[in-house]
Automatic annotation (TrEMBL):
Residues 174-272 form the Fringe-like glycosyltransferase domain. InterPro entries: Fringe-like_glycosylTrfase, Leu-rich_rpt, Leu-rich_rpt_4, Leu-rich_rpt_typical-subtyp, LRR_dom_sf, SDS22/Internalin_LRR. It comes from Alternaria panax. This is Fringe-like glycosyltransferase domain-containing protein. Keywords: Glycosyltransferase, Leucine-rich repeat, Membrane, Repeat, Signal-anchor, Transferase, Transmembrane, Transmembrane helix. PANTHER family: LEUCINE-RICH REPEAT AND IQ DOMAIN-CONTAINING PROTEIN 1-RELATED (PTHR46652), LEUCINE-RICH REPEAT-CONTAINING PROTEIN 9 (PTHR46652:SF3).
């Protein structure tokens, strides 16, 4: 055979090279296609749903830091920020990220502060070395817990950002009427936010966000997002400039910048509007739609923010939100229920091996009756009151709640208990956030426990919520409207109510004179609820009073218990959040079962001798120093004494039917006086000064114990408690896993434990959960997961 010529060899090499090129080309295209399909799908700007009602009047401020911005900002640039016309990014380091300028927030601060305070070490490194100042020590942002991320140098800087950020934001857009502050792991429902803000008068100072406490300071949680009107911004700036040195020293001594801002707003008399459940501190995947706080369940309310959102969650939720709004009328808002039913629920499998939905678990930080929305609700869940509160109620707004697993499939209990200021100020446990301090549940571990019962199907407004005024108060829209004290006298609020109505509820209507309601018309009335008004005295006609079984006067201005002589059939009386100093004139109410005196000025438990049928009494957040006057209440099953000044447990020997005792946030140094309470099932004793667990030998029926936020170093005293199902011990001083195993390993019914914030968790956070599982294999839930 003749040898191949050079032309043939050339052609053969050419074909091989060409084939290799084709293979590489399609490989690269395949890779690029795969990569593109997993990133954010592109939308032509014209196809985006971007509401513009008041969009140009709002500046969105993103607060971040050099340790996280490169990782977390890009997803927002591709999604949520595409609809927001005005936004600015503030950080501890000025730089460019994907063509977007990130402004430094500290450049106007005094050098005396930035050069001398140790918390500014990272800032000084960044100023001199740029991003090399990060890589030197391997600094990263590893997330934050309930107490923040206190070991992260970037997180230590965060508290100093809030006040200068307010100043810079106003200077950046002085014409803005609203300023909305979020973090990079906050998801903002832009359409719902604009609708929400439009209900307020931007000409007056407003401070709106998800409520939290540290000690006595109420503030809006920064991670959940918060809003300030321009007048509120100016008040903060004026105060900051006048007190900058004092505020710098205050900031150095604290750890949470959002709390510091809340303190300033309190000082300038701009109160916080409690914006739960619109603003959320949880990611969409773990939000408990059944949690009840301040009389509200998320299920029926428009969603405004979610927190702790990962990049893939932000992308996915943004795609869902865009699609949802493009296929619906513009005036229909996206509710938490819609998010669950259309976004979460379709992703769930019908069955999941060893899946625990926690559907029977209680809410640990919410207020009131925790009535779940479950498949057992055959009827639709009425959300009219929720929509009326939001100002957008439509006739067809009932949500069917009968889908399988619809209410709890993705829920989890709230975060672990948080520390709170103790009046004795003797313990050295670090002060941490006390979320929702005034939201109270039977198993609330947020610092005290007056659980504030609500009606199961009632969704009202929080105390003194100016949002509700926007809908109904003429003062907001009419400068010539009548002053508040005249509202009750000028109109009959019950004019359209049939006289055979047995349940009357008027909430947040500025009623000061009950006689103006002409209640004598309602001879068959059984329940009367006049929450959150301005009532100073109780005036109910005797013939009506004699038929009432439930009276709710929560959050009024009542200072004296009078006018109740005809209340002989009453089984429930709520006088919480008033100004009562003495318990009097109740002995004739022999049928009374539930009595609520949360947040009054009561210093002594007295005059309860005749209430032999009493099953529950709530005296949380008063001024009580001694447990007394309860000896005759032998049928009592629940006693709530959180947030008082009690130093010793005593006077309970006769209460042998007691099942729940809550005595959180007092001044107890030891557990005593429980020997006779053999039927006790729940003991909530967190936020005290306990150094050990003892005195529980006879309480063999205990199934829930909360000792969180006590300076307890060693776990002892639990040997005989075989029925323990939940054990809460967050933010103590426990360091030995061997003690955990020794005390709790034999508790076969134990399902939930909380040890977050202890040395045993902080010292080895990566190994902590595995060590708990090894020590307690029967446990289903560790902390919030």
């Amino acid at each position: 055979m003749a040898a191949a010529g050079p032309w043939v060899n050339f052609r053969r090499k050419y074909r091989i090279a060409f084939a290799a090129f084709i293979v590489c080309f399609f490989f690269v295209r395949s890779y690029q296609t795969s990569k593109t399909s997993s990133s954010v799908p592109s939308h032509d700007q014209s196809t985006l749903y971007c509401p513009d009602s008041i969009a140009k009047e709002v500046l969105v401020v993103l607060r971040t830091g050099a340790t996280e911005v490169v990782e977390k900002l890009p997803i927002h640039l591709k999604t949520t920020l595409r609809c927001i016309p005005n936004y600015v990014i503030y950080s501890d380091f000025e730089e460019e990220i994907e063509g977007h300028h990130v402004y430094g927030v500290f450049d106007d601060l005094s050098q005396d502060l930035t050069d001398a305070v140790p918390d500014f070490n990272l800032y000084r490194e960044l100023k001199t070395k740029g991003r090399d100042g990060l890589s030197k020590d391997g600094i990263t942002h590893d997330g934050s817990s309930a107490t923040g991320s206190l070991d992260n140098p970037g997180w230590k800087l965060d508290k100093f950002k809030f006040l200068p950020m307010i100043d810079k934001a106003l200077r950046h857009m002085p014409e803005a009427k609203w300023f909305v502050f979020v973090e990079l792991d906050t998801y903002l429902m832009w359409s719902n936010l604009l609708d929400y803000l439009s209900k307020f008068d931007e000409r007056t100072p407003h401070y709106i966000g998800k409520q939290m406490f540290i000690g006595d300071v109420l503030f809006a949680h920064g991670g959940s997002g918060f809003a300030l009107s321009a007048p509120a911004m100016r008040k903060v700036i004026d105060y900051w400039r006048a007190h900058e040195k004092e505020l710098n020293q205050y900031t150095i001594a604290q750890w949470a910048g959002d709390m510091i801002l809340g303190k300033v707003l309190k000082d300038v008399q701009v109160p916080l509007l409690w914006a739960f459940p619109h603003f959320q501190g949880d990611p969409v995947s773990t939000l408990d739609h059944n949690i009840t706080k301040i009389n509200r369940q998320p299920w029926c309310y428009p969603a405004t923010t979610y927190h702790h959102m990962q990049a893939d969650e932000i992308r996915s939720l943004w795609e869902f939100e865009q699609k949802w709004y493009r296929t619906r009328p513009k005036d229909v808002l996206l509710r938490h229920a819609d998010v669950f039913k259309a976004y979460i629920y379709p992703k769930l499998s019908k069955e999941k091996t060893e899946w625990d939905s926690y559907s029977v678990n209680p809410d640990f930080s919410g207020e009131g009756d925790h009535s779940p929305i479950t498949p057992g609700h055959a009827a639709a869940y009425d959300i009219k009151s929720a929509y009326e509160g939001f100002g957008v109620y439509k006739e067809d707004t009932t949500v069917a709640a009968s889908d399988s697993n619809i209410s709890h499939a993705m829920t989890e209990p709230n975060p672990a208990p948080h520390d709170e200021r103790d009046p004795a100020a003797a313990m050295d446990a670090s002060e941490t956030r006390d979320e929702d301090k005034d939201d109270h549940k039977p198993r609330d571990s947020s610092g005290w426990d007056g659980k504030l019962r609500i009606d199961k199907m009632s969704i009202g407004d929080e105390p003194r919520d100016p949002h509700a005024q926007v809908v109904s108060d003429p003062e907001v829209s009419d400068d010539e409207g009548p002053p508040p004290e005249q509202l009750a006298a000028d109109e009959d609020l019950l004019d359209d109510t049939p006289e055979d109505e047995d349940d009357i509820e008027i909430v947040h209507s500025k009623i000061s004179d009950m006689s103006a309601l002409r209640l004598e018309r309602f001879k068959q009335m059984k329940r009367l609820c006049l929450r959150q008004n301005r009532i100073e005295s109780i005036a109910i006609p005797e013939d009506v009073a004699s038929t009432l079984t439930e009276v709710d006067l929560y959050d009024n201005l009542i200072a004296h218990i009078k006018g109740l002589d005809a209340f002989t059939e009453l089984t429930s009386l709520d006088l919480s959040f008033n100004k009562i100093k003495h318990i009097k004139r109740l002995n004739h109410m022999t049928k009374l079962k539930d009595l609520y005196f949360v947040q009054n000025k009561i210093s002594k438990i007295e005059n309860l001798e005749g209430l032999s049928n009493l099953r529950q009494i709530e005296l949380g957040a008063n001024r009580i120093r001694e447990i007394e006057g309860l000896e005759t209440l032998t049928g009592l099953e629940e006693l709530w004494l959180g947030k008082n000044k009690i130093t010793e447990i005593r006077g309970l020997d006769s209460l042998t039917n007691l099942k729940i005792l809550s005595i959180q946030s007092n001044r107890l140094r030891s557990i005593t006086g429980l020997e006779k309470l053999v039927n006790l099932e729940e003991l909530h004793i967190s936020h005290n000064l306990l150094t050990e667990i003892s005195g529980l030998e006879n309480n063999v029926n205990l199934n829930v114990i909360d000792i969180s936020a006590n300076p307890i170093e060693h776990l002892t005293g639990l040997k005989g408690l075989k029925h323990l199902t939940e054990f809460w011990a967050s933010n103590c001083k426990l360091s030995d896993f061997n003690e955990i195993e020794k005390e709790l390993r034999d508790k076969e019914e134990l399902e939930t434990v909380y040890f977050e914030g202890n040395p045993l968790q902080r010292s080895q956070p990566a190994l902590y959960r595995n060590k708990v599982r090894l020590a307690l294999p029967q446990v289903v839930q560790i902390d919030a997961i």
